[in-house]
Amino acid sequence: MTRTAQSVTAAPSMTAPGSPVAKHRDWGPLQRGAGSVRSMNMAGVERVLSVIAGGALLLRGLRRFSWRGLLGAACGAVLLQRGISGHCPLYGALGIGTRKPGHGRSPGVPGDRGIQVERVVTIHAPPAQLFEFWRQLHNLPRIMQHLESVREVDARISHWVAKAPLEQRVEWYAQIINEVPNKMIAWAS
Q1: CA gyration radius for the chain?
Q2: Element (H, E) at 85
Q3: What separation in angstroms does the CA of 129 have from each of 49, 78, 149, 152?
Q4: In this predicted model, what pLDDT tens digit does every residue of 40-82 receive, in sequence order?
Q5: Sign of the CA dihedral 77, 82, 85, 90?
Q6: What is the pTM of this model?
Q7: Neighbour order of strands in the sheet with 147-152
Q8: 162 has which bridge partners?
Q9: Are 161 and 171 in contact (CB under 8 A)?
Q10: Lowest-confidence range among 4-18, 60-74, 149-163?
Q11: Which is it for strands 184-188 and 147-152: parallel, antiparallel or unpaired?
């Protein structure tokens, strides 16, 4: 059974008339505005306090077997989720946040629109050879076990399929938004 992600919002440049993706695919439910991609809008201290307060409320509520305890546990779970994710839905709805713009983000992705993923691995090969392997997107499932396939639609657009829980699949399109040969590549999806 195949299930397509319904909560992905395409970057505006990807859905503009005449863009490569608009030519290749009818986005259907993935049209801009049909879903939302959360971004972090909370500062570090506020996140830590939310996790601590949320965890305390959740544990206290679970220990009290009453409606009041259940309500406290639910509030604690919301605070815990808010602190862990760094996203406050109320801040998002109001268009505000306590996080400084660009804080903790990759220089390859403009503004607060990306997530930087870092891990140090020593590979004894020249940077050009490694970048070429990484840039050939069909190679990615060889090094990322959750990916089933990555198909290049054109030089910038690719179609990704990943394994999901309960033998499901998640599919999406990504666009390369920044590329510095032999150094960095950044996607928006």
Answers
A1: 20
A2: helix 67-85
A3: 45, 46, 21, 19
A4: 788 888 889 999 999 999 999 899 888 898 999 999 999 999 9
A5: positive
A6: 0.42
A7: 147-152, 157-164, 168-180, 184-188
A8: 147, 170
A9: yes
A10: 4-18
A11: unpaired
